Amino acid sequence: MKDSAPVLYPKEQVGRKVTEYSEDHTLSLPKELSEFHAWILETQETANYTISTFQAKSLVWLARLAGAKHVLEIGCYLGFSASIWSYAVGPSGTVTGLEFDPEYAKIADSKLAGLGIKNVQFKIGPAADSLKAISPSTPYDLVFIDADKSGYPGYLSALLSRSQPGSTDRLLRPGALIVADNVLRRGIVADPSDANPHAKAQAQRALKAHYGKDTDLAALDEFNKEMASNKRIESWLVPLWDGVMVGRLLD
Ligand SMILES: C[S@@+](CC[C@H](N)C(=O)[O-])C[C@H]1O[C@@H](n2cnc3c(N)ncnc32)[C@H](O)[C@@H]1O
């Protein structure tokens, strides 16, 4: 029997090469979207908020596999992943983005307008409030959760309670995909021991900043457990990038 946890790449450099090679052999993004991503990397101190181009490609592939036409995004930053969903669903599809920060949403709006993207609408405010207020004419085919990590369990609970079988005001359609980013947090959620150098570094940062216990990690663990155990969901935790949870709403 094959071991399901093989150490394939003994050195970081090999892992990097393999990742580059894999991205080169994955579908291409339109040039203007790659340039938008490069602009974020070059100009923003917080550029690490945005997904990588390789992860973006995987999301396009996933959305198209699911035949998604209507996407809900929770946490939009400067709009790069929203532009990816827009590309994935095509001009006849729609993207609704929930973003807390009006400055980010303003930049996202103007960048997407500059790219000629017309099917993305941002709603500004805490996502927990927006999730109560929105009422899409067609339920979403896919939701991408990428906002504050401590909010993930609450977002899942709101999405499920507002997508009840038989309801005429569902947020998610039966069979919709629930995709959530950063669910492993550099592996710390799965291995918080000192054997994980990221866990050690995180603990030191937390001590320095005097915020003690990292509530994000506990919330992500709670979210992953709920995705895996809820009978309404079939889950797949993909250990790529920072950990991506993919779930399918069964009812
Ligand atoms: C990791 S970034 C999103 C990156 C984006 N999905 C991308 O890949 O380009 C997280 C975003 O969530 C937003 N955010 C944080 N807390 C939020 C909340 N309570 N409600 C809505 N958005 C929130 C932040 O302002 C930030 O823009």
From TrEMBL:
Keywords: Methyltransferase, S-adenosyl-L-methionine, Transferase
PROSITE patterns assigned: SAM_OMT_I (PS51682)
Record-level Gene Ontology MF annotations: O-methyltransferase activity; S-adenosylmethionine-dependent methyltransferase activity
A GO BP entry: methylation
InterPro entries: Cation-dep_OMT, SAM-dependent_MTases_sf, SAM_O-MeTrfase
Superkingdom in the source lineage: Eukaryota
Signal sequence coordinates: none
Pfam families: Methyltransf_3
Membrane spanning stretches: none
Family per record: Belongs to the class I-like SAM-binding methyltransferase superfamily. Cation-dependent O-methyltransferase family.
PANTHER family: CAFFEOYL-COA O-METHYLTRANSFERASE 3-RELATED, O-METHYLTRANSFERASE-RELATED
Protein name according to UniProt: S-adenosyl-L-methionine-dependent methyltransferase
Source species: Coniochaeta ligniaria NRRL 30616
